Amino acid sequence: MSKNANLLVVGLSHRTAGVALLEKLALNPGEMSGVLGEIVGQQYVDEAVVLSTCNRVEIYAAVTAFHGGLADIGGALAARAGIAMHELAPRLYVHYEVDAVRHAFRVAAGLDSMVVGEAQILGQLRDAYGAAGEQGTAGRLLHELLQQALRVGKRVHAETEIDRAGQSVVSAALAYGQGATAPVEGRPALVIGAGAMGALSLATLRRAGASPLYVTNRSHARAERLAELHGAEAVPFAELPTLLERVDVVVSATASPEPVLDAPLVSGALGTAGERDLLVLDLAMPRDVAPAVRDLAGVTVVDIELLSESLSTTADAEERAGEEIVAAEVEAFLTWLRGADVAPTVAALRARADEVVETELRRLAQRCPELSDEARAEVSHSIHRIVQRLLHQPTVRVRQLAAAPGGEAYAQALRELFDLQVPTSEINPSEASEVHP
Length: 437
Prior knowledge:
It is built from 17 helices and ten strands.
């Protein structure tokens, strides 16, 4: 890894923290820019990308010191959660350098998801990367890491059948809910929220045979666009109480900081509709459904916490195939990264050689003014060829050696031997994005 900046991942997920803590840390899109700015404003953090989903909140960062970066990021998370760092620390996972690369690739591939193989994490990771790009908080290391992570995620899904059953948090929650209530086929269903999870919910309900389908959202225009795509009816958000009286299944997936469904609202809808069962899938973070709703007679609530407890994490052949792809891609990424670290040194060596050649050619012109232009050109061409041939093997070899563990020592040796002044600034992110392992 580069001596100037190293990759660090700090986060919490359904594996390490309860929903109550994840709710405190969850970000809605409007908060992202402020949080990104706060994190990169810390002393040891140069770059940052924040991924916030229904079952994880994690920060990908390029840091100038491990302990300093961890303290900066952990402190920011603790402050947001409103708890002391020593209380938060046991719930955090930390991945550094090669482990950070491996974690990013596994997340993108769906191997670290609550529902292994779910594909929507790719879109969520792409959105997180895009938000950091808009705010200018993703530089050379994170540009390359996230671009490669997205590519690896697509590769795992394309080359394995890890998502063979169309698995998703929605389908898993629906399957769990139907185990406790009647099948949803032929039953009216409502989706609250018109984001990516809302779209996935409509598609899943339609495949399961739920009908008719309704969708509502605070922005009615977005609900209308989603309804048109999935054969549903868009209903104004103000009509939510009336709408609840007409449906048997509700999927709520909004970005609201407060519950969308509380006990008085739901009990009122059940009371006017008569005796019936209501299945509610709460896929939001923070939760859209108030805790008291689950105590109402006739209501079954499935949320992220309940779902995480029920899902099996047993690895199968497709998961193992995905892990093998990730392992190979991690090694390829590290090879690229080590090569990128030595590239400025190789460029500086060639520039030094060019300077020496040009200096000697000017001296030759002064000492031998009688040489013709043709003779000077021939001499210049010959000297350049000799220097390039002399440098070719050493520069090729140092790139090969730099790709191996501990290879940064060879670049350092070149700098010492030839007294090279290599700029410490990182290469342009646009250039880095064009280099792929």
